[in-house]
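Prompt: May I have another protein with tokenized structure?
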Amino acid sequence: MEEKISESGLIDELYAVVCQRRDQALPDSYVSSLFARGSDRILQKVGEETCEVVIAAKNRNPEELVNELADLVFHLLVLMADQEITPADVRRELADRFGISGLAEKAARKK
């Protein structure tokens, strides 16, 4: 029986597993199979999961939405590992934006 991961640090632990599957492919690993098929397949999965999140939200089905959000977050972690972007990189960016008006932050990026 596999040990459950605590919710605290879950993203970092899951990302580490994704990177491990990227670097040491396992024949029965879904993640390894995504990396083997390349960036286009990973991007396709992110697109599919994004559409499924939108549909679940449109249907106003909280249980379905939570499931689809989890799928999207998982596939975003695979994309991040493929592009060598870490959860810490994303946390830093979010921290830099914290407390700044979203409109002001967006305008600053356009400069």
